[in-house]
Amino acid sequence: MSETSAPLPFKKLPWDSPRVCVVGDVMVDAYMWGKVTRISPEAPVPVVEVTRREQRVGGAGNVVKNLTTLGAEVDVISVVGDDSAGQDLTRLLATMCTPHLAVDPLRPTTVKTRVISGGHHVVRVDEESTAPVPANVVQEALERLHELLASPTPPDVVVVEDYDKGLMTLELIEGVLSACDAADVPVAVDPKLRHFNAYRGVALFKPNLKELNEGLSLGTPVHPENREAMACAVETLMDRLQCTRLMVTLGEHGTWMHAPEEGVHHAHVPAVPREIMDVSGAGDTVIAVASLLLASGVESQALAAVANLAGGWVCERVGVVPIPRQALESELSRVQLPHSALH
C-alpha cells in the first residue's frame, strides 16, 4: 500500500445547470416549537405550549432541495396520500422542482413531526405507511420516468433515494434501472436495508458504514481503521452488486471509495476537521453532490472527497441545511486527495 496526496483537479464545481431526476420517498418534516412550563396532570409528561409551526420537505425532498440549491434543474418522482399533507408537500416541492407525484388514497403522506422546546426535542411523531405501493403507482412512476428519459432534455443522472417507506418496490427498482440503462443515464443510489441487494449494476452505490455492515449481515462489524477487513467487505458487496463505484460514508472517519474500473482501489478519504453540531441531512447532501459530480464525469476519488466535504459542512450547522454552490466552492481548497492502493 502506498499513500501520497494531491489537490483537486478543479478549483470550481464542474457543472452549469445539470438536469437531475430524483426517484424516492418524499415526506413532510414538520416542526412545532414551544415552551414547557408544567407537567401534565394526566401523565408524567411535559405540556408544550406551541408558539410556532413550520413544514419543510424531507426524505428525498431534502435531496431535491440540495440539488436545487447547487444549481440543478430537478424532477422528482414519488407518491403522496390523498390528504392535506400531500397537498402541502406538493406545493412545497413545486417551489424548487418539477414534482411528478402519484396520489395513493390508501396511504397517508409521510409526516414526521418534531416537538421542540428550549432547543431540545421533546418528542417526534411519525405518520406513515411502509407498505409497498400498489402496482398502479409503480406503473405511473415508470411512465413519468420514461417520459423524462425520452424528452429533448433528459436527466444527466437519476438519483434513487430509498427511505424504505414503500415506494421503492422490487418492480419499481427493476424498472428504473432497466430504463436508465437503455437510455445510457447513470444511476446513483442511496439505499436502505430492505432492498439493499436489488440495485445491481448502478453507476454509484452509497451506503453508510452501518448499512454496509447490516447489508452484508456481518456478525463482526467492520471498521475503517481495519483496512483489510473494510476492503474485504467492500469487495464482497461490489461483487454482489456489480456496481461501477461503491462509496461508503464513514461519519467522522470520512469516506471510502472503490472504483476499480477507474483504477481507484480502496481510497480512504479522511474527513476535513469540523466542529460537529448536527448530522441531520448530511447523507442527503453527500448523495446530491456526488450525483452532480458523477453527471459531470469527475473521477471517483475527487467525487468522494468533494461529497464528503459537503456533508461535513452541513454537520457544522444546526438543522437540515442545504449547502449553497458558492459555499462549497469556497471549501474546495481544503481537499487533499489521498492516492491509496491495496493489492
Total helical elements: 9
CATH class: Alpha Beta
- Named CATH topology: UDP-N-acetylmuramoyl-L-alanine:D-glutamate ligase
Question: Share of helix among residues?
Answer: 25-40%
Shape type: globular
Identify low-pLDDT runs. Answer: none
**What structural class do helix, strand and pairing data support?**
alpha/beta
Mean pLDDT: 91
Q: Biggest sheet: strands side by side, in what order?
A: 6-5-2-9-10-11-12-13-14
Please identify, by name, the CATH architecture. Answer: 3-Layer(aba) Sandwich
Please report which band the strand proportion falls in: under 5%, 5-15%, 15-25%, 25-35%, 35-45% or over 45%. 25-35%
Distance between the termini: 7 Å
Q: What is the radius of gyration? A: 20 Å
CATH superfamily: Ribokinase
Order of helices and strands: EEEEHEHEEEHEHEEHHEEEHHHE
State the total count of DSSP E strands.
15
The major sheet is characterized as: 9 strands, mixed
Number of domains: 1
Explained architecture:
The structure is a single chain. Strand 5, helix 2 and strand 6 form a beta-alpha-beta unit. The protein contains 9 helices and 15 strands. Helix content is 32%, strand content 30%. The protein has one domain: Ribokinase (UDP-N-acetylmuramoyl-L-alanine:D-glutamate ligase). It is α/β, with parallel strands linked by helices and 343 residues long. The model has no long low-confidence stretch (mean pLDDT 91). The strands form 3 sheets. The chain has a 9-stranded mixed sheet, with helices on both faces.
